């Protein structure tokens, strides 16, 4: 009787000890949760490339090569974006002040606008109204020029902070690549014990979906960034490379790229 009670007490104490250790690990790793998640997604998405390198070199060398390649593809553009933004901020501040200091006129409404059925006349009249009121727009917005510039700087500082998180994610991804096979086998064994014999098929489907989603998002973002940079260059706007890189990173969001080229279009219209 006493032996059973002692065994039960030991199990309870062991469970409490393990629970405390697990809770402590969660508390310690919580600030790095986003970096760990990004490292896992990045490692899984690039695992075929790592396997191709692994057949030609050691696991350590292949992990170093993958880390360097990802750094070239992600961290260096972010660092370039941050440094270019800081260097160009005085020039953009002077341009914003010039924009808010002088009068600008909208061009007359195009002919096709009036010919739109039902709403054409109203749209043309609204266009004319804006063309008369736009002279006062600069004077109205001038007190907020400093706040606008400060908001832009805060935005770019957040991008720089994202670059730091990305550096941490690459550091973690190096160890994921290095020990990815054993980690994958352990994870598969745990999920198999939970989900049964069909866990391998489910993992294959989920993995293909994740990899396809990552490839699609990154490919679309890169194309949008390139097209944005080309558009800025063709229209004569300054810093086409910087805004192309910014559009590529923001294009990961559903409405990211328009946050770059819509203000540029309004700038061209006002200029």
From TrEMBL:
Database matches in Pfam families: AI-2E_transport (PF01594)
Xref: InterPro entries: AI-2E-like
Keywords associated with the record: Membrane, Transmembrane, Transmembrane helix
Highest taxon in the source lineage: Bacteria
Localization per record: Membrane
Coiled coil regions in record: none
Full protein name: Transporter
Organism, scientific name: Acetobacter malorum
Membrane topology of the entry: Multi-pass membrane protein
Residue spans crossing the bilayer: 12-39, 59-82, 152-178, 213-234, 241-261
PANTHER family: TRANSMEMBRANE PROTEIN (PTHR21716), TRANSMEMBRANE PROTEIN 245 (PTHR21716:SF4)
Recorded family membership: Belongs to the autoinducer-2 exporter (AI-2E) (TC 2.A.86) family.
Gene Ontology cellular component terms for the protein in this record: membrane
């Amino acid at each position: 009787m006493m032996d059973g009670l002692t065994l039960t007490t030991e199990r309870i104490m062991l469970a409490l000890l393990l629970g405390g250790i697990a809770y402590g690990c969660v508390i310690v790793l919580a600030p790095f949760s986003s970096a760990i998640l990004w490292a896992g997604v990045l490692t899984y998405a690039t695992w075929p490339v790592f396997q191709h390198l692994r057949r030609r070199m050691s696991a350590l060398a292949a992990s170093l090569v993958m880390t360097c390649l990802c750094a070239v593809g992600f961290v260096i553009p972010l660092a370039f974006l941050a440094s270019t933004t800081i260097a160009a901020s005085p020039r953009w501040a002077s341009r914003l002040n010039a924009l808010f200091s002088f009068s600008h006129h909208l061009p007359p409404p195009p002919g096709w606008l009036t010919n739109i059925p039902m709403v054409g006349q109203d749209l043309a009249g609204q266009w004319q109204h804006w063309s008369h009121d736009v002279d006062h727009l600069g004077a109205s917005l001038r007190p907020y020029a400093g706040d606008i510039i400060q908001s832009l700087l805060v935005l770019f500082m957040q991008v720089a902070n994202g670059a730091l998180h990305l550096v941490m994610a690459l550091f973690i991804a190096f160890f994921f690549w290095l020990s990815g096979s054993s980690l994958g086998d352990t994870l598969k064994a745990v999920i198999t014990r939970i989900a049964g014999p069909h866990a391998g098929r489910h993992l294959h489907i989920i993995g293909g979906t994740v990899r396809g989603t990552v490839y699609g998002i990154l490919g679309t973002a890169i194309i949008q960034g390139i097209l944005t940079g080309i558009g800025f260059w063709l229209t004569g706007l300054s810093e086409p490379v910087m805004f192309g890189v910014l559009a590529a990173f923001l294009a990961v969001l559903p409405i990211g790229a328009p946050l770059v080229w819509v203000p540029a279009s309004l700038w061209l219209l006002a200029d």
